[in-house]
Amino acid sequence: MSQRIFLWALLTSASFTSWATDPFTIELYQTSCNICHGAGVAGAPTSFEPSAWTERLAKGKDVLLQNAISGFKGMPPLGMCSDCTQEDLVDLIDYMSTEQPK
Ligand code: HEC
User: Fold this and answer.
1) For position 20, what pLDDT does the model report?
2) How remote is the CA of residue 44 from the centroid of ligand 1, in Å?
């Protein structure tokens, strides 16, 4: 039993793009980030358009995470997701910066 949980945790924490994003992350995205990133409001990098993220990712994911937490120019602290944990934000950034199947 505990072995199964371990395996599950291992699989869900890996951020290979071929793994489907878990529904919780998608829900957080829809309720918090999509308002601005869906359409690229105020210069926000557009979601699911890897080219919009290349320059950002080049700064390093830890920098992006820090900026998402503390805010960055037009980007509000935590992306207005006051309930998001650091792990949630990591998942969200992975989700938003990669192409997603429709
Ligand atoms: C109120 C609008 C708004 C919301 C809501 C929002 N963002 Fe942003 N975000 C922005 C804008 C604008 C930028 C671009 C800032 C710039 O570089 O000028 C940005 C940039 C970013 C960046 C790149 C930061 C960098 O260092 O280049 C990340 C990562 C990010 N947002 C993640 C998120 C996540 C995750 C959420 C949801 C939890 C979210 N954002 C919600 C407006 C928003």
Assistant:
1) 74
2) 6
